[in-house]
Amino acid sequence: MLRINKELLNFLGPLYHSDTEGNIIEQTFQPKSQILLEHKQVFSVYIIKSGIAKCYLTEDTGADFIQEFFGEGWIFGEIEAIRDDLSFCNIDAISEVIMYKISKDFFYNLLNTNEVFNRLILKTLANKIYYKAIRHSYNQSHPVESKLLRLKDDFADLANLISKQEIANYLGITTRSLNRTLKELKVKGLMNF
Amino acid sequence: MLRINKELLNFLGPLYHSDTEGNIIEQTFQPKSQILLEHKQVFSVYIIKSGIAKCYLTEDTGADFIQEFFGEGWIFGEIEAIRDDLSFCNIDAISEVIMYKISKDFFYNLLNTNEVFNRLILKTLANKIYYKAIRHSYNQSHPVESKLLRLKDDFADLANLISKQEIANYLGITTRSLNRTLKELKVKGLMNF
DNA sequence: TATTTAAAAGGACAATTGTCTCGCAATAAA
DNA sequence: TTTATTGCGAGACAATTGTCCTTTTAAATA
Fold first, then answer.
1. Which of B12, B74, B84, B75 is nearest to B43 (CA)?
2. Is residue A72 within 8 angstroms of chain B, CB to CB?
3. Chain A 14-33, residues with CB within 8 Å of chain B CB atoms
4. Chain B 34-73, CB < 7 Å to strand D
5. Overall CATH class of domain B2-114
6. How is chain B split into domains, by residue range?
């Protein structure tokens, strides 16, 4: 649930340091600040250098559904750039987030001229689809208890970084259901979160 | 819910006809036959020339969750090729399906040497992510009734091609829930499917 | 320390969705 | 025509999850 991409980060670090034309800039976001908003134009592609962000959609019901938690090396804005369309997600910083920011044009340029980068982006996109397919299918076919157990280890890692509300939003359930099920699992001795 | 990709089909048609080395072959699958199985090696990338297929995952609960219905121009196997991993979906023909089949190697080759193809694949991947993100979020945040209404028009188009069971599997619900809700909508005069 | 605020936990009840089962209708096989 | 077979629809009930609201806890501030 916390996605990282060291390969992409390793590619971008050196590129940033050798860049003299301002094609890549660093930008810092404070915790809880909004990085990207739904239904807006996107002018840049972002890669997380450090910190954690959440990517979520706000539905007409008022509920937020968290697509993914983004960590080091995770990229966003690239889908909008490739589709040449408005943003379809909100991105909020959870911790302090430092990011590499590259303009759409430079992103296109890299895609066309740098085979390694091109392949990295292809892989990243393919992985995003893979992760989403598996998760969506699992979510639709299993009760809350199973979903929670499946993420047990992730919770342990993220426990002091993300709130209960965020976990609920990630699972597409209410905090009430989350608490109820967590308690049942505690009684059964299957979880101590 | 029935995805097509004319652009990709328009690209592949001429390529197929000018191909003298057997890089692209046509293959026909009968209705209900299996085209791809989960957890198997994938040696080719497929693009649908005509017909309809379904892409689904079988969960440990025994339930099938349909990721998408594939129509003309839709591609699959490309994610496995890019990730260099086993298949993670089953693909079954629904109607008779005629496909262009290209080897992994030729697919890689096209990606590296043909900028147009490369861009088409990037777009296709980005679209797959976009569609999945929107649908997953909607599914998690809305009751069955809303999900059905949202797909009203698609149902009308596909009604005589796909079964009730398949619709239920696409929505991640049981046929019982589907029938119950369809009846309620009929009573309300909101649907006549 | 006392006071305010926000996050977390949970009680009571309602709504939604699933499970199991049976019956009906349509189509295919005997 | 009769007999299986299969998909569809739905009744009765159970389980799951959500809604609304109150209480508890813990951290932040005065």
1. B84
2. no
3. none
4. none
5. mainly beta
6. 2-114
